[in-house]
Amino acid sequence: MTFDLSRMPGERLTVRGDSEVGRFPGAAPPTRVELTIHKEDEKKQEEGACRRWFRKMCPCCCKRQNSTSYDVTDKVEVIKPSTPAPAPLTSLFPFTELKLSVRSVDLLSSKTGQNRLEHHTELYHGDELIIRRGQTFQMEMELNRPFSSDTDKMHLDLKTGPLPMVSKGTHVIIPLVDHLEDERWEAKIVEQNDNKIKLSVNSPAGAVIGLYGLSVTTRSLKGDATTTYKSPANIVLLFNPWCEEDTVFMDDEEERKEYVLNDTGRIYYGTEKQIGARTWNFGQFHEGILEACLFLLEKSDMPPSGRGDPINVVRVLSAMINAQDDFGVLVGNWSGDYSDGVSPAAWSSSVEILRKYHASDGTPVSYGQCWVFSGVTTTVLRCLGIPARSVTNFQSAHDTDVSLTTDVYFDENMDPLDYLNSDSVWNFHVWNDCWMARPDLPPGNGGWQAVDSTPQETSQGIFRCGPASINAIRSGQVYLKHDTPFVFAEVNSDKIYWQRNLDGTFSKIHSEKKAVGHCISTKAVGSEERADITHLYKHPEGSEEERISVETASRYGSKPEVYSMARAEDVCVEVRMEGEGPKMGADAKLSIVLKNLSSEPRRTVLHSQVAVMYYTGVLRGAIKKEEMPVELLPEEEKIIDWVLPYQQYQNQLVDQAALMLTLSGRVTETQQVLANQTTFRLRTPDLNIMPLGEAVVGKEMAAKITFTNPLPRTLKGVIFRVEGLGLQKGHEVVVGDVGGHSTVTLTEHFVPTQPGPRKLVASLDCKQLTQVHGVADIVNFDFKLRILTFFSDFNLRILSLI
């Protein structure tokens, strides 16, 4: 710093730094220096009137002291301005005023930064600013000069959608305020350092979600022309289950970890007596998935202004996940021919599906069935911040005529009338639950809502279903939206058997009150176990509450009079299965149990028919029929062994290796109708995955995958699909043909990229054998982190000793 002393005494002196003052960046505020000059030990004297007269009369004798001969004291008094703000530019340049403008904006979007951590978005791939609504976030700005609240004005603009409008909530104008308040868009300066300021910005809990562009507008209080800075970086706003004011708020932290943050899960399949489970990679934080989910919203017909309501968002997404009528994500295929796509059973992750859909600019991916639709739906909802889970209903009814019953029709001879039997009962069906309040319904209907993306029936002209309140389903309040009657029939409809009369009319001959909605399953919170949530969907079977619920719902169906009939029954029939049930490649063995509950003998002819069935409940064709005369003594229980040889089904099976055994008959003495339908599957083997070596981030390891063909014949064109989030990218391994009872061993080499517990998932793709998969739990260690932790612990121990 230099002092300019070549001035007359008493002049004001300016101190200059290394940079210029005024309009150049980095300029320091000018420091004023008052310099007082006088001689040592000399007092200032006033010039009298006489001396002034004498000097005028004789200037040579009385000269004024030379102004250049003076001494400078070593005392310099530096007087700084009272405020850090610079002197107005107009004091230096009276006719110029420097307009305030923004030079740059830092959204503080690092994964490890305050914004991402506080908003629980640090797991998303990339360094964009991803935040949740109803919560404050920070940003920093560099200006061309210091900001003065006395002379400057500033506001932020956030815009989303193709035609942002303030009235629609898609163009948000955020003012600067002195104090932040909840439930409104506002910003406050929380730090200021020269030309840099830090803002804290608040968003309301009902804000529209999606991708926002940011701009900053500045002007002076005089109302002069404005300057606008457009940020090159965007902001992604998501739903917020951590915010009490958000309609998707979930108050249990463990449930939030499971239903929002867990990127893997379990999907259940099979039959109620043989429940299978497969691991599914939801991958909602994986690279490209958030972009794909936002693309899905953009591609839908929903206006951006509707994206603030999770009810609307979920309803639209249930339509967009299937490609039935809007070119959505997945093409459904239940034909068994997947030659021009991927077999639904081969998928084990949503990541490849969504990335492929996005990369192709919205070309539907082939193919999907219910568990694939559900897995993708879970991914999309969790990615957007809506708590969600995949749910499997065993013995799931498909009601096609809104009767709220599952109807089975027979002719006069008790042969099924296939052309009338459009209702069906699927071995299992997978849909989703999502969590939200329902302000559009009476109180008590918030919480879990059922939503189904599998295209089954149309809702308001579009293949979609839900969200339907589970509480409304449980109580039979099927008049509450959306699509509650259909979901109620899936889980709690009675199975009604009808027989054609000679005049062509039909009479109700039997009803099964416990035929559908069994073992409704989802992954348990915080573990790999199965949680049975049947009690959430229905009251205990046979209870008075359950019967009231069924009869309440039936009043709103197409056959409200169906429950006016009552019939006594004293013979019952059921089918039992030993252990986990029949295995693929062996004879299928079941037990038929008849009980006579009366004190009189009973006789009947039991008709049995077993048919190959798609898991949706659609029958492909009968492969075995027989008649069995049965005589029962009073109060006798009789067990009949039933066997289906391997040779009879080996070339007949379709996707899930499912079969349906139908039993029917009439009791001679009472004319009571006996009827029972039991579904079962032939269990397939698992892929055995064994990790080899220590799992360390950045270090190569391996895993051995072993499979044994359970069939006595060759499997053609076997393909393995392997994927592990944080372990390796999904890929195919072509194995080729595998001989009967042969064993295949595959060793995978990969380098873990993310620390912590991960899952390596593999599945087998083969036309002759489906639903073969496996999973291995692998805990990746970060060696560098372990070293840092060791030395940190070591230092703490040393300090404790000191």
From TrEMBL:
Topological category with respect to the lipid bilayer: Lipid-anchor
Originating organism: Sphaeramia orbicularis
Location in the cell: Membrane
GO biological processes: keratinization; nervous system development
EC number: 2.3.2.13
Any Gene Ontology CC annotation: membrane
Protein name, entry field: Protein-glutamine gamma-glutamyltransferase K
Domain called Transglutaminase-like: residue spans: 362-455
Sites where the protein binds Ca(2+): N492, D494, E541, E546
